[in-house]
Design a protein that fits this description.
By secondary structure, the chain is mainly alpha-helical. It is 74% helix and 0% strand.
């Protein structure tokens, strides 16, 4: 079980993130408490807590977990692992989105063409990062300016498409006038 993607993702997470995943799993994924996927995670979490919150020391054996889940065959276990992996990936995306909340909020405003609210978020974020230096601040600044440019480019009126039929009629009228002269 330690060579799976589930284990790799769980070992990347901090202790609080792993413990927070249970809340995410129960409340944001629509799974019920009696779901085998939640039971699978609880077995993994139990092994994690027994190993003093160290995944490398955790006793995670596939056969042992299958026996503990009672009535889960090998094919069904693979499906459970696949569902759990999908939920863990969703949680990791959720954590990243929380970290970059204002960037997503700005892109939402750009998509909806809401310049007034965008400016409020932009000014607030600019104030936050004013005295901060480093790569994170630089990335945040570049994201801020990128979103502002996107909003400005989106607000530029587009040139109307050329109506060739109208041009032809105008040219025909012009040529008729030239013939009359």
């Amino acid at each position: 079980m330690k060579s799976t993607k589930i284990f790799e993702l769980l070992s990347i997470m901090s202790k609080s993130e792993v413990l927070g995943f249970e809340v995410y799993l129960k409340h944001f994924t629509g799974t019920r408490d009696d779901n085998k996927g939640i039971q699978l995670f609880e077995k993994l979490k139990t092994a994690y807590t027994k190993a003093d919150y160290n995944w490398k020391k955790a006793n995670i054996e596939k056969e042992k977990i299958i026996k503990q889940l009672k009535g889960t065959e090998n094919i069904a276990f693979r499906k459970l692992c696949s569902e759990l992996l999908s939920n863990i990936e969703g949680y990791c995306s959720f954590l990243q989105m929380k970290k970059e909340k204002n960037n997503y909020l700005q892109k939402f405003c750009v998509d909806r063409n809401r310049e007034d609210y965008f400016q409020k978020v932009f000014n607030e974020e600019t104030r936050k990062i004013k005295g901060i230096v480093g790569m994170d601040a630089l990335k945040t600044k570049s994201d801020l300016w990128e979103n502002q440019w996107l909003l400005e480019f989106k607000s530029i009126p587009k040139k109307p498409k050329t109506d060739f039929k109208q041009l032809y009629l105008s040219f025909a009228e012009f040529s008729n006038i030239k013939k009359l002269q």
